[in-house]
Amino acid sequence: MPVRHMGGASTSGSAHGYKPKTLYEAWCSDSGAYPVMGVIVFACVFSVGTGLYFMGTHQDSRVSKSSRKAIFRGELKNVH
Known about the structure:
The chain is mostly helical. The chain has helices at 23-28, 33-57, 65-69, 74-77. The chain has a domain at 32-61. It is built from 4 helices and no strands. It is elongated and about 85 Å long. The N and C termini lie far apart (94 Å).
């Protein structure tokens, strides 16, 4: 009597002949993957651009070490 394994799949050579796909075979050969790649690239560029914009222009962003140690922002230091 043949032995049945838990997965139910036949082990007579199908698992031994499996070859993993390369990056090109998995993503670039399928035309349906291009919109997904476009959305991912757009999201990455948008998030990095927005982060750099706010770090460069926002008053509360403190990039230099001297301003990070200050308790108040620059315009609040000279108020009498």
